[in-house]
Design brief:
single chain, mainly alpha, Arc Repressor Mutant, subunit A, 3-stranded antiparallel β-sheet, 6 helices, 5 strands, 10% strand
C-alpha cells in the first residue's frame, strides 16, 4: 500500500477498478475482431444480443441491460435501422419506443453467435467452468454491494 495525504492507499496494480478494466479489456479483445467481421461494434452486438434474448424491448430497458448510455443507444438504433437489422414496433399507447430484430438482424445474430459462443467456450475451458460460474456470481454480488449507498447498509 502507498501513503497518500497521510492515508494508506492500495497499490494501483491491485485497485479493483483497474483489475476489472484489465479483465474486461482482455475478454473483450477476444470478441472484438469476431464482431467487427460482421460490420458491427461491440456495443451494436450487445444490442443485437439483448434483442435476440428478449424482444421487443424499450430504450430504457436496452440501455440498462446493455450498459449503454441513452445518447449512444440512439446512435446505435439509427445505425442498426439503416442496416435493416432492427425496427420499431408500435405500442397501443404510442408512448414507448419498442425495438425488435428484423429478419436480417435475427439471421445475422444466428450466424455471428456461433463464433461468439466458440470464443466463450474457449475462455471457459482456459479459465474453468466452475471458476466462470463463481466469478459471475461474485460479480453480481459486487455490483449489488457497490450500488448500495452507505446509508442503505445502516
Amino acid at each position: 500500500m502507498d501513503e497518500v495525504n497521510g492515508r494508506r492507499l492500495r497499490s494501483f496494480q491491485r485497485a479493483l477498478p483497474i483489475s476489472l478494466l484489465r479483465a474486461r479489456e482482455g475478454t473483450m479483445r477476444r470478441f472484438k475482431g469476431h464482431v467487427e467481421s460482421y460490420g458491427l461494434t461491440l456495443q451494436q452486438w450487445r444490442v443485437i444480443r439483448a434483442l435476440a434474448d428478449d424482444s421487443p424491448l424499450d430504450s430504457k430497458t436496452l440501455s440498462e441491460r446493455c450498459v449503454i448510455l441513452p445518447p449512444s443507444l440512439t446512435r446505435i438504433f439509427r445505425t442498426l435501422s439503416e442496416k435493416d437489422l432492427i425496427h420499431s414496433v408500435k405500442t397501443e399507447d404510442n408512448r414507448r419506443h419498442l425495438v425488435v430484430l428484423s429478419k436480417k438482424g435475427l439471421d445475422l445474430f444466428e450466424e455471428a453467435s456461433v463464433g461468439s459462443e466458440a470464443i466463450y467456450r474457449d475462455i471457459e475451458a482456459r479459465f474453468g467452468m466452475d471458476n466462470m460460474t463463481e466469478l459471475l456470481r461474485l460479480l453480481d454480488e459486487l455490483r449489488n454491494a457497490a450500488m448500495l449507498s452507505p446509508e442503505d447498509s445502516e
